[in-house]
UniProtKB/TrEMBL annotation:
Matches recorded under Pfam families: LRR_1, LRR_8, PK_Tyr_Ser-Thr
Residues in Protein kinase domain copies: 441-605
Keyword tags: Glycoprotein, Leucine-rich repeat, Membrane, Repeat, Signal, Transmembrane, Transmembrane helix
Name of the protein this chain belongs to: Serine/threonine-protein kinase PBS1
Record's bilayer topology term: Single-pass type I membrane protein
Keyword Cell wall biogenesis/degradation: no
PANTHER family: LEUCINE-RICH REPEAT-CONTAINING PROTEIN DDB_G0281931-RELATED, PROTEIN KINASE DOMAIN-CONTAINING PROTEIN
Organism: Solanum tuberosum
């Protein structure tokens, strides 16, 4: 009897062990992953005796086995996201030896994977198309890494995918057509540089529960196709550049619980007859350009329904005016952000044929010659101008220069130029507004510091991100003279320059006729410098040859514009050429004279 009992206990323990014993090949793959990730703390206890299928689960590590194969792999490291890494003194990405292509070649050998989560591990490089070899994948989470470039179009091959999370990376460009992901329930692409077109999610994706596209650069209208997402519970489109009217159907989606569309450029009057879903608990459409009255279901009575509504910094008339812009502010801003009309050609740009590629190569040869001729022309013109001499001691513009001609009666043309560039009108700020934008110059908002002063990141009341340069004046200057010079600076608006959006002059308390500090509000150009893209192997592949030629032409056009206005002697270096979200070149360093010292307007210190 005891013998049978012993045999029964032996079989009881043997069966689950053998059914979950990992095949040796997949054990070797896990050790390879450990080496690729440079042995992060969460994996440091692995050794040849480790039984992976029986490791205790934790928030940082989950390995699930079924039928001798790994079906779930979750690894959460301690590396910071790209945005957080700006404040870190230690490198957060994996070393230069890391190859994301080789890494995913190994990972995709785990053919039974249903859930793959690789979070905060310092992965860098472009996401390879081969990741779609994981045909059984249901959850893909690669959050808080340094993934570059575009999302591969092969992502739509995940026919079983229910959750796609690629948040807080360095992804850019357009999102591929995701209509093929029929059973997708969660999509989180927040914290990247994706855009400008709103992703195509299909009109019949009734399974989507959570959609988060916040903190990107989407610049389009919210598509009407979202009204068919009957299971959508959480929608976050905040901190983009969305334009057009606020769709009324969002509030009445049957399952919707939370909506955040704050810090966009939505305009027009809110629909009067809006019905809200009984499930709706949170709404935030602050910092837009909305006008009119709040619908009844979003008004003061909404609090009785346990519904939180945040609507500050619009131009609404039915709420406290202390937290709203004047009506004229939204009207002017709405004109400036009006989206360009769509053309039929945009639908054909996705198909690039061989003839176009060959024509592009031939065009590049022609462009190289044109750029060389243009640079020769500019240099020749500068030499001629220097021979003639600019004899203006107080500013680098002559009275008969092109920009100075617009000083009298040129305000309308200047405003139109601002609108065409998508820039707000030039604004003279108060010290209180500067303190509000930078949170009283909080050290956490300090971007850089140099001999000329400090550079802070700030947020204006309309939600736009700017850079605020603080210049401590060593020489005595009259505030009136400074105002005149800043007025001339305000005319420097060009597609290939980092423009000045406004300024603030602060005087000494005991000498109100003497200026002590000048705050200069600059555009925030999001994609870093040209030097970063050419020297950093993680960004180099983003710049294809056509883009490089476009950048070269942009620099030449920016220099020509400055020289035409008499602004010469500029320090044009790779680090002083910035790239915006469309990889357009923007010159960030140009000389503006303040008597008797020279002030150089630099995007970075």
């Amino acid at each position: 009897m005891k013998g049978f009992l012993f045999l029964g206990l032996f079989l009881f323990f043997l069966v689950p062990f053998s059914s979950s014993q990992l095949v040796p090949a997949e054990s070797r793959i896990l050790f390879q992953i450990q080496q690729f990730l440079e042995n992060p703390p969460v994996l440091q206890e692995w050794n040849k005796w480790t039984n992976f299928c029986f490791l205790p689960q934790s928030p940082s590590l989950v390995i699930t086995c079924s039928g001798n194969h790994i079906t779930e792999l979750t690894i959460v490291g301690n590396k910071k996201s790209p945005f957080e890494s700006l404040k870190s003194s230690s490198p957060q990405a994996l070393s230069g030896k890391f190859s994301i292509d080789s890494f995913f070649t190994v990972v995709t050998k785990l053919s039974s994977l249903k859930k793959l989560s690789l979070v905060s591990l310092g992965l860098w490089g472009s996401l390879p198309a081969k990741i779609s070899r994981l045909h059984s994948l249901e959850v893909l989470n690669i959050t808080s890494n340094f993934i570059l470039g575009e999302i591969p179009s092969s992502i739509v091959n995940f026919k079983n995918l229910k959750s796609l999370v690629l948040a807080r990376n360095l992804l850019n460009g357009s999102v591929p057509d995701l209509k093929g992901l029929k059973i997708l329930e969660e999509l989180d692409l927040s914290g990247n540089n994706l855009g400008p077109k709103f992703p195509s999610l299909g009109d019949n994706n009734n399974n989507l529960v959570s959609l988060n596209l916040s903190n990107n650069i989407f610049r389009s209208e919210i598509p009407n196709g979202l009204n068919k997402f009957t299971h959508l519970q959480n929608l976050d489109l905040s901190s983009n550049k969305l334009v057009g009217p606020m769709p009324a159907f969002l509030f009445s989606l049957p399952a919707i619980q939370s909506i955040s569309i704050a810090k966009n450029q939505l305009s027009g009057a809110l629909p009067g007859s809006v019905s809200c879903s009984n499930n709706l608990k949170f709404v935030d459409f602050s910092s837009n350009l909305l006008m009119g009255k709040l619908p009844a279901c979003l008004g003061s009575s909404s609090s009785s329904r346990n519904r939180t509504v945040i609507n500050v910094w619009n131009c609404l008339s039915s709420t406290s005016t202390k937290s709203q812009h004047p009506h004229t502010f939204c009207e002017k801003q709405a004109i400036a952000v009006k989206p360009p009309p769509r053309t039929s050609d945009e639908k054909e740009q996705s198909t690039v044929k061989l003839g176009v590629v060959l024509g592009l190569i031939a065009g590049i040869v022609v462009v190289v010659g044109a750029v060389g001729f243009l640079i020769f022309f500019i240099v020749k013109k500068v030499v001629r101008n220097r021979d003639q001499g600019y004899k203006n001691d107080s500013f680098a513009f002559e009275k008969n220069s092109t920009l100075s001609k617009t000083a009298d009666g040129g305000n309308a043309r200047r405003t139109m130029r601002m609108v065409s560039l998508g820039l707000p009108p030039y604004h003279v700020f108060t010290l209180e507004e500067m303190e509000e934008a930078t949170n009283s110059f909080d050290p956490t908002n300090l971007v850089g510091e140099g001999s000329q002063g400090q550079l802070y990141r700030g947020w204006l009341r309309d939600g736009s991100v700017v850079l605020v340069k603080c210049l401590k004046l060593k020489q005595k200057h009259s505030p009136q003279i400074l105002q005149q010079h800043m007025e001339m600076i305000s005319k420097l608006r060009h597609r290939h320059l980092v423009s000045v959006l406004g300024h603030c002059v602060v005087t000494y308390q005991d000498h109100p006729n003497t200026a002590s500090t000048v705050f200069i509000v600059l555009e925030n150009v999001v994609n870093g410098s040209l030097k970063d893209h050419l020297s950093d192997w993680r960004k180099r592949d983003v710049l294809k040859w056509p883009q490089r030629m476009g950048i070269t032409m942009g620099i030449a056009k920016g220099i020509q514009y400055l020289h035409t206005g008499g602004v010469t002697g500029n320090d044009i270096k790779l680090e002083n050429v910035l790239l915006d979200e469309t990889l357009t070149a923007r010159i960030s360093s140009y000389n503006i004279s303040l008597p008797p010292k020279v002030m150089r307007l630099n995007h970075y210190t």
